[in-house]
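Board notes (copied after class):
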Amino acid sequence: MAPKSTLRGLWAASLTPLAADGSIDQKLLVDHARFLLRSGCDGIVPFGTTGEGQSFTLAERRQAVEALLGAGIKPDAMAVGIGCAAIGDAAELARHALGLGIRHLLALPPFFFKGVSDAGVAAAFARLIDMVGDARMQLVLYHIPQVTAVPVGFAAIEKLLRDYPAIVVAIKDSAGEWTHTQELLRRFPGLAVLVGAEDQLPQALRHGAAGTICGMANLVPALMRKVHDSAGKPEEAALTQRIAALAGIVDRGSFVARLKAALGEATGLPGWRAVRAPVMPLAAPDAQTLWQELRAAALTSADTGAAGTLPKGAAAAAP
C-alpha cells in the first residue's frame, strides 16, 4: 500500500497567461497564483492540461516555476506538471523541480503512440522514476484518456505501487467517469485520488478521495472552496449543481480557450485571452457571450474571490 500523499484538498490546475509577444507573462502568472492561494486554494499545479503544458518548452517551464518560487510561492503549495513525450525531458523537469524543493510531480503516461499496454505504461513511468533517481519524488499519475488516448490502467497502477511504493503516491483522475473513480478508491485505498471533474468532488471526498486538481478553480476559487467543504453537508447538492452549471458552460468547446476567455472578461487583462496554437482564442463577441452566460447562471464576485483580491483590472469587470 502506498503512503498517503500530502497533496490533498483544493488544487488549481493553473492557467498560463501570455504576454503580447507570446511568451509567458510571469508577473501575471505570479499575481494569479497569489490570488488563487488567497481565495481558498490549497495549492497550484502549473503546466498540466489546463496550463497548456505541452505547448511550452522545457526552458519556459523551468523559468516560470523559478519565477513563482522567487515571488514567495512556497514549494509545498505547488505541484508541477512534467508531462512530456520524451521520458528524458520529463525527468529533466522532475529533477529541476525537486532541486527547488517541489516534491509532487504530475506525470502523463506515454501519449504519442497509441494502443499502449498496461505493461508499457508501467514501464514508461518506471523509466521516469529510475532516471530521476531521487527518493524525494512524489509522483502523481495523470489519467486523462480523452486527451492522451492512453489510460493509466489498474494493472499499471498495481505494478507501480508494488515496485515504487514510496514514490507513486497519488493519481489525478480526469476521465470524469464516476464508476472509474469509485474503482480506484476501492482498489487502492492508500493512493491519494484527486478528481478533475468539479461536480464530482463532494461525492468523491465522501468516498475517501484526497481532493481535486481542477480548472474551474482559476475562475471561481471561492466557490470551489465551498464545494470542497460541502461534502456530506446539507448544502452539498445545491453547490454541486451550481458548479456543474458553470463548468458546463465553459466546457462547450475548448475548455482552455473558453476558461481563459472567461478570466479575460472577468479581469479585463489581455494576457488571459491569449493561447498557444493549436488552441485558438475565442473571438471577442464569443467571449462576451460566454461571460453573459456565466452571469446568467448566477456567477457572482463572491464565487471568484473576496473583494479586492482579483488580479488588477478585475474590479470593474467582475460581476
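Comment from the instructor: The chain is about 45% helix and 10% strand. The first helix runs from residue 26 to 38.
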